[in-house]
Amino acid sequence: MTKRWMVGALLYSLIAAPAVAQWLPNAQAVPGGIAVVTLNASSEPRPTAHYRKHPVLITEHEGRWTALIGVPLDASTGEHHLGWKRPQQAEVQSRFQVVAKDYPEQHITIKDKRKVNPEKRDYDRIRKESERLGHARKIWRDTTFSDLELQLPVEGRRSSAFGLKRFYNEQARKPHSGLDIAAAEGSPVVAPLGGVVILTGDLFFSGNTVFLDHGQGLLSSYAHLSKVLVSTGDHLSSGQMLGRVGQTGRATGPHLHWSVYLNQTRIDPALLLR
To answer: How would you label 109-122 residue by residue, b for 16+ Cβ within 10 Å and e otherwise?
Structure first.
């Protein structure tokens, strides 16, 4: 076999080999899940889309622009609409169906009763922190994705699933908005995907917290940390350490509370794990 033939064969194999399709999250059009809607051909300019007045992430998959829509936990079942448009063209409506999902209950006893029923002196702090979090969730950074598969941010046991109907000291509270991973105090927490740090702080309920912006409204947060090792504006690569597991804020033991957002909506992080 001549060297020229070998080089030619290699070039042919590179050209002829089919492109590997980007992995997509597990499509579950349920409250707290992800709806996947196929749009137009990716040979055309990328369209824009919105759902409930919020911009929606669009990525390329198998030669088509595809919208990934975060479905809120309070979404009604039945037909929903995605508005989208090509540049300089009229808006188009695509339909998708949301089906019901029943999440189980979880009852938790919190010794620090102030974390269940805050005192008057706490409300000003909680309000200001809520405003900061609201501003962070609205951040939109236009980008393209070469990969949407997340890695676990910490090794450990998945102790509380997303969406659980929560009761603290037998008092009903909002459903669980993330995935809890139990791990030893001080365990390293890493970025599951490259992103920009958009918020850090010691918050009343979530303790030491980090927010990452991965682009196009895909955000993630990491709560109850013992240490925060990054600062706002830092650019992190996938697998880069951002903090250590702790039990700050409203927590009963060392663990990571990991939340993921799409179009300002909390979704089940497990859907973005292969």
So the answer is: eeeeeebbeeeeee
